[in-house]
C-alpha cells in the first residue's frame, strides 16, 4: 500500500456524537469565510460537503406527489430540521489502477457537516456500526428511539463506534446483479445467451440474459431487473450472490426480500449497500495490480478474482449508462450546476436537437454543449427515487484532458423530496417542470471531488 494511502487511512477522526433520544443536534455553526486548503482527500471531501450545504436543503415530505404545491404542503416549504443522510467514498487511483488515497465521509443527524470514517488497511470502515434503513426512524429524526442489535445491517460487522443508518441504494443495487451475472457467466455457470422471460405471464417478453443486463444498467430498466432477479431465483443463485459478496469482504452489499415469482419487492432495509463497499466492488471491476484488499479471513482480493471477460463487459455497459443527473449532470446540460464533467453516451441523443431520451423520458435539454466540454468518462450506475439518490462508478480522463482516475460511490437519502432552497417557492416540483429531479448540491459535490482529483494528480500527490 502506498505511503499516500496509509497517510489518508491514518487521518485522525473527531469522536462521533451519540444519539440522544428526544433531542435535536445543535444548530450548525456559521460557515467560515476563509478555509485552509485541504491536503488530504478526506479533508477535501469534508470541505466539499461543508461548501455545498446539504443542511440547507428544503424537505418536500416523505409522500411523493404532494409537494411542492400540493395539498397538505407548507407554503413556502421550509428548511428541514436535519439534513439527509449521506455516505460518500472515494478511492483515487494511479494510471495502473493502484490506490493512492482513499476516504469515506458520512452525514447524519449528529454530523450535518460530515464526519470522516476511520478506514483500516483494507479500506473497511472500522469505527461505524451500520444499521438498517428505517423510513420511520429517518423521518422522526433525533427523536427516534435508540438502536438495538436487531437494527444491525450485518450482524457481527461492528459493535461499537458511530451508529449510521445505511440509506437504500435505489437502482444502484442493480450493479450487484450485473456483477454476479457476469462473474458466473465467466465461470461457465450462466449462459448470457439464455432466453429469459420478463415475468410468469403467458404473454411475457423473452430476451437473452445479456440483453436484459444491458437494459438494466444503461437505462436502469426495472422490467429487465425483475427478469434477471426471477432468473437468478429460479436457478437458486440469490443466496450465492450474497454469500460471494460477503466472501469478498463486502458484507454490507446484499439483496434480500425480492420475490422469486416475478423479481419484485425492492425494500429499503432489505436491499443494502454502503459507499466504501460499493467503491471497492467497482475498484475490483476496474482492476489493478497486486492485492487490492484482504477479507476479514485474510483472503487476498486481486484483479483475477473477477475474470477479465467479466470485467471488460461490466466496464462496457457502465460506460453506456445513460442517466447523468446526480454527480454528473450532462443529461440536464445548462439547466443545473455542472457536476463531474462526463460525456453522455451519444446513442441516447436526438441527432437534431441533442436531447437525451431514456426509457421514454425526454430530459429536454441539448446535451451536445456539455459533451463538447466533457473531460472524463464516467462508467457508473445511478439510482434516484423520491427518498433516495445514489451514484457510483469509475472516472477516467478523455484523451488529451487533465489526468485524474478515481472511484466514487455516493449513497444518500437526498432523493427527489429534497429541493434546493432557490427552487422551494416553485408551484411545481422541478422534476415535473424541467426534468431536474436531483438536488444541484449533489452535482456540486461531484464537481468538487473531480476538481480535487485533478489538483492532487497535477501536484503528484
Sum this structure up briefly.
The protein has 461 residues and is of the alpha+beta class.
Helix percent band: 25-40%
Shape: globular
Quaternary organisation of the protein chains: single chain
Output the helix-strand order.
HHEEEEEHEHEEHHHEEHEEHEEHEEEEHH
Q: Which value, in Å, is the CA radius of gyration?
A: 21 Å
What is the mean predicted local confidence, pLDDT?
Answer: 89
Would you count the extended β strands for me? 18
Distance between the termini: 14 Å
Poorly predicted ranges: 1-28
- Give the helix tally: 12
Strand order of the largest sheet: 4-3-2-17-16-15
Structural class: alpha+beta
Query: How many distinct domains?
Result: 2
Q: How does this model look, in words?
A:
This protein is of the alpha+beta class and 461 residues long. It has two domains: 3-14 and 36-169 and 324-458, no CATH class; 172-270 and 281-311, no CATH class. The protein has twelve helices and 18 strands. It has helices spanning 3-9, 41-52, 135-140, 174-186, 209-218, 222-234, 238-247, 275-286, 308-319, 368-373, 430-434, 440-458, and strands spanning 58-59, 86-93, 99-107, 115-116, 128-131, 162-165, 195-197, 206-208, 254-255, 271-272, 291-294, 300-302, 355-358, 361-366, 376-384, 389-397, 406-412, 418-419. The chain has a six-stranded antiparallel β-sheet with strand order 4-3-2-17-16-15, sandwiched between helices. Helix 2 packs antiparallel against helix 12 (440-458), helix 4 (174-186) runs antiparallel to helix 9 and helix 5 (209-218) packs across helix 6 (222-234). It is globular, with a radius of gyration of 21 Å. Mean pLDDT is 89; it is low at 1-28.
Amino acid at each position: 500500500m502506498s505511503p499516500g494511502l496509509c497517510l489518508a487511512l491514518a487521518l485522525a477522526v473527531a469522536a462521533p456524537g451519540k444519539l440522544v433520544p428526544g433531542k435535536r443536534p445543535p444548530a450548525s455553526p456559521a460557515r467560515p469565510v476563509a478555509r485552509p486548503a485541504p491536503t488530504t482527500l478526506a479533508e477535501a471531501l469534508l470541505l466539499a460537503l461543508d461548501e455545498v450545504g446539504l443542511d440547507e436543503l428544503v424537505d418536500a415530505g416523505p409522500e411523493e406527489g404532494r409537494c411542492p404545491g400540493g395539498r397538505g404542503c407548507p407554503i413556502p416549504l421550509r428548511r428541514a430540521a436535519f439534513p439527509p443522510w449521506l455516505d460518500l467514498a472515494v478511492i483515487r487511483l494511479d494510471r495502473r489502477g493502484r490506490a493512492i488515497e482513499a476516504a469515506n465521509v458520512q452525514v447524519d443527524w449528529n454530523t450535518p457537516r460530515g464526519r470522516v470514517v476511520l478506514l483500516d488497511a483494507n479500506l473497511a470502515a472500522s469505527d461505524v456500526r451500520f444499521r438498517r434503513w428505517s423510513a420511520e426512524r429517518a423521518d422522526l429524526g433525533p427523536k427516534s428511539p435508540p438502536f438495538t442489535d436487531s437494527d444491525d445491517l450485518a450482524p457481527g460487522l461492528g459493535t461499537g463506534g458511530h451508529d449510521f443508518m445505511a440509506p437504500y441504494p435505489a437502482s444502484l443495487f442493480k450493479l450487484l446483479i450485473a456483477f454476479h451475472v457476469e462473474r458466473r457467466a465467466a465461470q461457465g455457470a450462466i449462459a448470457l445467451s439464455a432466453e429469459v422471460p420478463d415475468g410468469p405471464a403467458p404473454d411475457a417478453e423473452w430476451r437473452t440474459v445479456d440483453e436484459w443486463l444491458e437494459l438494466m444498467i444503461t437505462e436502469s430498466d426495472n422490467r429487465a431487473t425483475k427478469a434477471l432477479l426471477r432468473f437468478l431465483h429460479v436457478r437458486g443463485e440469490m443466496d450465492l450472490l450474497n454469500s460471494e459478496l460477503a466472501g469478498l469482504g463486502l458484507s454490507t452489499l446484499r439483496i434480500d426480500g425480492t420475490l422469486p415469482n416475478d423479481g419484485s419487492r425492492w425494500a429499503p432495509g432489505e436491499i443494502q449497500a454502503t459507499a466504501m463497499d460499493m467503491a471497492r466492488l467497482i475498484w475490483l471491476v476496474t482492476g489493478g495490480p497486486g492485492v487490492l484488499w484482504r477479507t476479514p479471513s485474510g483472503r487476498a482480493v486481486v484483479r483475477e478474482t473477477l475474470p477479465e471477460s467479466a470485467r471488460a463487459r461490466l466496464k462496457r455497459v457502465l460506460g453506456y449508462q445513460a442517466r447523468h443527473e446526480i454527480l454528473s449532470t450532462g443529461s440536464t446540460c445548462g439547466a443545473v450546476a455542472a457536476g463531474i464533467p462526463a460525456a453522455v453516451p451519444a446513442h441516447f441523443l436526438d441527432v437534431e436537437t441533442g436531447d437525451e431520451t431514456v426509457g421514454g423520458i425526454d430530459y429536454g435539454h441539448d446535451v451536445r454543449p456539455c459533451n463538447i466540454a466533457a473531460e472524463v468518462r464516467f462508467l457508473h450506475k445511478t439510482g434516484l427515487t423520491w427518498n433516495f439518490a445514489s451514484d457510483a462508478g469509475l472516472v477516467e480522463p478523455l484523451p488529451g484532458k487533465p489526468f485524474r482516475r478515481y472511484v466514487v460511490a455516493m449513497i444518500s437519502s437526498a432523493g427527489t423530496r429534497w429541493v434546493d432552497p432557490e427552487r422551494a417557492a416553485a408551484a411545481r416540483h422541478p422534476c415535473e417542470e424541467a426534468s431536474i429531479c436531483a438536488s444541484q448540491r449533489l452535482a456540486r459535490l461531484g464537481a468538487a471531488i473531480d476538481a480535487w482529483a485533478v489538483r492532487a494528480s497535477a501536484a503528484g500527490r
